[in-house]
Design goal:
Rossmann fold, 7-stranded mixed sheet, single chain, alpha/beta
Length: 209
């Protein structure tokens, strides 16, 4: 059986009120595989866990449990400066997220790749002027067609955000209070009750049923 491009296995991240408290203020769980090149849309309210998920996939945050494999390699066991050869997180205005260090780098593995396989775009800024959206959509398409996995995270505030997701993405992840729901199509996503509540008036404004 071929190795998945990305395997997120029984991943958990918990934040507690303090170092001395066992009370969890936030708990994220994730378990999914990406078998082939694709573009995956990620939606959810602010604070739902979208950015935390991206940080865990790229190795800039360390899980309490579970593993993340990119090209069959556990990204949390890869040297810090080489993790972006597996997966890279572009946050909003496309700055790359820093890596949280938990062990001396020389004790960790070398990356099996020279360039990233997984690209995670976290609420990128889409300029409505001068064809910029078309440029970015084409960029996502080129990455996917070149064999990469692309995550496009948006918190839709305008109808055109939904148009971007519908045009660009083949699968979708809805994040709600640290829990992920996977959808295999845009129609399946927008038919789900929790998603429709989250999107609210944008549903009618975008021409969705």
């Amino acid at each position: 059986m071929p190795t998945p491009l990305l395997a997120v296995e029984r991943l958990e991240k918990r934040y507690r009120r303090s170092r001395f408290s066992r009370e969890a203020t936030f708990h994220l769980t994730a378990d999914f595989h990406v078998e082939q090149p694709s573009t995956i849309g990620v939606l959810g309210a602010n604070g739902s866990g979208k950015t935390t998920l991206f940080e865990l996939i790229t190795g800039s945050n360390f899980p309490n449990a579970g593993r993340v494999f990119v090209s069959g390699q556990n990204i949390h066991r890869v040297r810090y400066r080489e993790r972006d050869r597996l997966a890279v997180h572009y946050h909003q205005s496309y700055q790359v997220r820093k890596i949280k260090r938990t062990a001396p780098s020389f004790l960790l593995e070398r990356a099996v790749r020279q360039s990233p396989l997984v690209h995670l775009f976290d609420e990128p800024q889409f300029n409505l002027q001068d064809g910029y959206i078309g440029f970015m959509l084409n960029f996502f398409r080129l990455l996917r067609n070149d064999g990469h996995v692309v995550f496009l995270c948006l918190h839709p505030t305008e109808p055109y955000h939904l148009d971007i997701l519908r045009e660009s993405c083949e699968r979708f992840i809805f994040v709600r209070s640290g829990t992920l729901t996977i959808f295999e199509s845009y129609d399946e996503l927008t038919a789900h009750d929790s998603v429709r509540v989250y999107l609210g008036k944008l549903i009618g404004a975008s021409g969705m049923p």
